[in-house]
Amino acid sequence: MNALRAVVVCLVIACAAVVSPGAATAVRPGWSALAVPAAAPPATVSHLAARGPGEAWATGYEQAADGLRPMLYRWNGTAWSRDTGFPGAGEPGRLGKVRFVGKEVWIFHERRGAGEILRRSAAGWSAVPVPQVLWTYQDFTAVAGAAWVVGEDDTGLKVLHYDGSRWTAQSTPDDVRYLMGITARTATDAWAWADTTTGAGVLRWDGTLWRDAKVPLPPDSNVHTILPEPSGRVTIGGSRYVDGAPRTYVTTWNGHVWRTTYPPLGDTSAEAMVRGPDGALWLPVRSDRAFQSKYARVDGSRTTFSYGPERTHAIDVKPRALARAGFSLLSFGTVEIYGSKPNLMSERLGG
Description:
This protein is mainly beta and 351 residues long. The protein has helices at 2-19, 21-26; strands spanning 31-34, 44-52, 55-64, 67-75, 80-82, 93-101, 104-111, 114-121, 124-129, 136-143, 146-153, 156-162, 167-170, 176-186, 189-196, 199-205, 210-212, 221-228, 234-242, 245-253, 258-261, 274-275, 281-285, 294-299, 302-307, 314-325, 328-337, 343-349. A four-stranded antiparallel beta sheet has the order 1-28-27-26, with no helix packed on it. The model is unreliable at 1-27 (pLDDT under 50).
């Protein structure tokens, strides 16, 4: 009888472990490889964004006979496919950032030197031309009611704002020389990272003006990305120079104060850093294994690492962008197989 009771107790504990929400979140399956239709090598990845588990978009450009050619891939929750139905798909150019605006997908497109915003709705693709040609299109972002394109022309820095019907040029503080990137939480809450006369700086748009956000960045530092979240938390990732070598930092606003930490990431770029479904920060790092990708997970003071799947004959696996897709993480990048040029690869954690 005692033996039977022990067996029953063990079975109950085992079943509880399987169905318990806590147990489910404690188990983190490894990275798996996802097939991606090949591009014309060498391929370059620009961005990856996901709306949920069943929709993600990856952008970039490939090498064609007449120069760079834009490339666009869509994830439907099961497989990656290439989209060639957007305006200018067969012309020289490149695709940049992807943003979700309501039910639409907005993507920046540099087409034969001119800029435009591609918009995909239920009715299909359309394009909104940028009102002036820039020498450099540095970055793009969009939210409901607003979009920004930043870059330079022969007169200097340009911040172009689109409100859904018209474009206007916005001014920045006098000490700003160049904007490295831009992102937004709402039409009246946008963030940009800048090169100023005194070093790296962070600007914030309040719906009326761009102002210095007064972020206490580490000395001798650069900003790679800013993650403003619906909760009000803001996370900045970048690097600072210590004894001539870059060192990754993370600066976070918790609603009251800014706090900076230095995860053990060496000189890793934080450009592809995202907030994962588990609440931690994730970013690709340089792998010490030629045939596998490597990712860092930063959760407060704890940093852990995981490897992607082994790839036969690979000599360089480089995840370039990450995105949260429901309860999964998607990765998009390139892999170089011995004897060939880099082509596209994708990986998923969870799902």
